[in-house]
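R.M. (postdoc): so does anyone remember the format we settled on? I'll just put the structure tokens first.
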């Protein structure tokens, strides 16, 4: 209550009320402290470490900042923006970035970004298609075309002419420059690996696998529809 909080503050002890369980668990990971439900059980070994604990007003809210923790296992990223839409977009981008880093650390494998893997994959698929005949060849070529949608969309979103950039990308990959990708800031083709534009291998393989599974599923459904033509007129026997 307010009285207890007053006396604690008077003795240099910061007390926070109505802390959520998730926040308390995050604090344990950040400070190394342990959650104690009974003060009689509290001991020195249960305490954590933090250089600064202070209350800061952010906008219309009072927030408790816990800083300078030793080897924290949990941190908080504060996102600000002029509008809710901006905040939501930044939050989404941040979550995507954290997910990418997490996937990279989990597998320990990365590839160049900027559309380089997709263009190289499309190139190899077209080579494979040349060894086939009939409908199989058309299917593989169509798959190669669909893979190139990734760098095309990347270029369009960056305001770059997709036809020109894809033509240059293909030319570079034909010269065995397999890491050639799009630099969306410079608006040109660069060596994505040397430029530090990287992505987790896990996300790339998962995307190709999921796309293949969906394509197979749709084709199977199409076969069922094509093979189940309705009979017009008359009652069933």
């Amino acid at each position: 209550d307010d009285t207890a909080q007053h006396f604690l503050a008077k003795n240099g002890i910061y007390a926070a009320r109505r802390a959520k369980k998730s926040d308390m668990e995050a604090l344990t990971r950040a400070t190394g402290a342990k959650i104690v439900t009974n003060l009689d059980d509290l001991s020195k070994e249960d305490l954590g470490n933090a250089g600064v604990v202070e209350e800061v007003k952010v906008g219309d809210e009072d927030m408790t900042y816990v800083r300078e923790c030793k080897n924290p296992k949990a941190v908080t990223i504060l996102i600000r923006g002029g509008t809710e839409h901006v905040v939501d977009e930044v939050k989404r981008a941040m979550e995507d970035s954290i997910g990418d880093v997490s996937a990279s650390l989990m597998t320990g494998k990365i590839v160049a970004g900027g559309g380089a893997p997709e263009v190289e994959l499309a190139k190899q698929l077209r080579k494979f298609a040349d060894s086939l005949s009939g409908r199989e060849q058309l299917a593989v070529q169509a798959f190669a075309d669909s893979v190139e949608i990734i760098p095309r969309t990347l270029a369009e979103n960056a305001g770059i002419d997709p036809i020109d950039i894809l033509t240059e990308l293909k030319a570079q990959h034909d010269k065995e420059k397999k890491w050639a990708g799009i630099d969306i800031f410079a608006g040109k083709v660069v060596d994505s690996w040397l430029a530090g534009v990287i992505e987790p291998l896990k996300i790339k393989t998962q995307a190709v696998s999921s796309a293949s599974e969906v394509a197979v599923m749709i084709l199977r459904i199409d076969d069922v529809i094509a093979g189940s033509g309705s009979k017009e007129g008359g009652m069933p026997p």
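R.M.: ...and that's the designed sequence above, right after the tokens. Also worth knowing: The radius of gyration is 28 Å. The beta strands are 50-58, 61-69, 110-112, 180-183, 188-191, 198-200.
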